[in-house]
Specification:
By secondary structure, the chain is an alpha/beta fold. The protein is 45% helix and 17% strand. The strands form two sheets. It has a seven-stranded mixed β-sheet with strand order 7-6-8-9-10-12-13, sandwiched between helices. A six-stranded parallel β-sheet has the order 2-1-3-4-5-11, with helices on both faces.
């Protein structure tokens, strides 16, 4: 046989109907012993492999949960995905990752594909406002949960980090230690998480007479963006006395470039990162940083999907906010390893 065997071929070899073969594959306990033996023998003879995707579509469900992520290469998204994967697997579901790289058109294409495949649910960390996707998914009966993105309404399920509090904690530490010229480095103000961290930092600066804050945006969010930012700031002349970086990767690059230029950390300038991953991705172990429970957030996102699928949710969607903690190390203080 030049093509892959089909149900019809199994039925013909076994001498039974196509519907009986289908019943044997989906609910074998309902098929008589003699018919089951003939079908099993035919499947073995033909090397027939059931089309699981088609079978799930016919049964009106899927074991697949899609995670449409802004940037899965970011270690923070990877940790969220790990938490989601573990919870999905415990529920007998398969998590599929889709990396949009922040591109809206890629995001739309993935959502459309997962709608066609009738996935069980979607975890969504969008590059744009999510109303378009949420409405489309809802009309197809596919529940969605926003991941670390502010929900457009109280009816939308979401799991979020308190990014405002993260910016507030880091800036309170820096200004409380006597720093007064704060520069926040990284990302785009239009990104909700960045905007919230900036707002938290600004609230602290406003409470300290004489304190100043500037924002230094970057097009990318990796180590090289930190190096480039440091070079530009050094070339501009007057140095700040404190940096709050929008993630640890930018902080690593910034510290490398400042140290190479002879700037002493933390004597000349204090540096704080965000997401507390520096020790996992580099040999930088003295970076103060904001810690968020990424894996717990990923697991909670899947839990919200399960609540909707299994009828455990209330009439209104739920929104869960995870507070941050602050890990103090040597990059911002002479008394490291203090946790707030």
């Amino acid at each position: 046989m030049s093509r892959a065997p089909r149900l019809q071929d199994v039925a013909a070899v076994a001498g039974v109907s196509v519907s009986l073969v289908s019943s044997y594959i989906n609910t074998p306990q309902k098929v008589g012993r003699q018919s089951a033996e003939r079908i099993a023998k035919a499947i073995e003879e033909l090397k027939f492999v059931p089309n699981d995707a088609a079978r799930q579509l016919r049964r009106g469900g899927s074991r697949m949960v899609a995670f449409v992520a802004y940037d899965i290469a970011d270690p923070n998204f990877s940790r969220i995905a790990q938490g989601a994967q573990a919870r999905a697997a415990a529920a007998g579901l398969q998590l599929v990752l889709a990396d949009t790289s922040g591109l809206v058109e890629t995001e739309r294409a993935y959502i459309a594909m997962f709608e066609e495949q009738r996935v069980r649910g979607v975890l969504l960390s969008p590059a744009q406002r999510p109303e378009e996707y949420l409405e489309s998914l809802e009309t197809r009966g596919i529940p969605a949960v926003l991941v670390d993105h502010p929900p457009p309404s109280q009816d939308c399920s979401a799991v979020m980090f308190d990014n405002h509090q993260g910016g507030f904690l880091a800036s309170s530490h820096l200004l409380g230690a006597g720093r007064r010229r704060l520069v926040v480095v990284g990302g785009d103000r239009a990104i909700p998480q960045v905007g919230e961290r900036l707002r938290g930092a600004a609230d602290v600066v406003a409470a300290f007479p004489g304190a100043q804050m500037k924002f230094f945006p970057t097009a990318t969010r990796g180590v090289e963006a930190g190096r480039e930012s440091a070079r530009e700031i050094l070339a501009a002349g007057r140095m700040p006395d404190a940096f709050l970086c929008i993630n640890d990767l930018i902080a690593i690059g910034l510290m490398q470039e400042l140290t190479a230029a002879g700037v002493r950390i933390p004597d000349d300038v204090a540096v704080v990162g965000y997401n507390n991953i520096a020790g996992e991705v580099s040999n930088v172990t003295d970076l103060s940083s904001i810690e968020h429970p990424h894996r717990a957030l990923g697991g909670s996102a899947v839990e919200l999907l399960l609540d909707e699928l299994e009828g455990r949710s209330s009439t209104e969607s739920r929104q869960i906010v995870f507070p941050p903690s602050f890990v103090v190390r040597g990059s911002s203080t002479s008394s490291p390893t203090e946790t707030a």
